[in-house]
Amino acid sequence: MTVKTCIIYHSYSGITRGVAEQISAACGGELIEVKPRKNYNKLTVYPFGGIRAMRGERDPIDPETLDVSGCDLIVIGSPVWAFKTTPVINAALAALDGCAGKRAVIFATCGSQAGETLDIMRKALEEKGATVVGESVLTRKDVNDGAKVTELAGLVKAAGNPA
């Protein structure tokens, strides 16, 4: 049986995209990049995006809905803004449809600490009926040395092939 994996992510700087691409290369899976309809820029990303993240707000996104009913495994990655998920990932989590009974692996990329990011993602997925079976925080150093990304790919492979 082939496991269908959806790898959903938001990436402002390209770091989270790079991790998602490495997971896809190692494990297979459809990459789904969620983007804000109105892009942040270097002057707005942290003052406005960070404040919106702290408040748990959602940005209008494309794709507007994310039907994962055809997937067996959901992988979701978010950058950390103000120790929380980005407003884009908040919207993506709300836009998920078809999660009931699915397994999920979540990850966050950050400078040094993920804060509440994984808790926010886990709670949102559990409320939609998914079970988080793996999670990882990757700091800038972890992404650069690659071992933690390989470990995350191993989590995804294991989640896709439960005993």
List keywords for this structure.
single chain, alpha/beta, Rossmann fold, 5-stranded parallel beta sheet, two-stranded antiparallel ribbon
Short description:
The protein has about 160 residues and is α/β, with parallel strands linked by helices. The protein has six helices and nine strands.
What does this entry look like structurally?
With 163 residues, the chain is of the alpha/beta class. The chain has one domain (5-160): 3-Layer(aba) Sandwich (Rossmann fold). It contains six helices and nine strands; from the N terminus they run βαββαβββαββαβαα. It has helices at residues 15-27, 45-54, 87-95, 117-127, 140-145, 147-160; strands at residues 5-9, 30-33, 35-36, 61-62, 66-67, 73-79, 96-97, 103-110, 131-139. The strands form three sheets. A five-stranded parallel sheet has the order 2-1-6-8-9, sandwiched between helices. It has a two-stranded antiparallel sheet with strand order 3-4. Strands 5-7 form a two-stranded parallel sheet. Helix 1 (15-27) crosses helix 6. The model has no long low-confidence stretch (mean pLDDT 94).
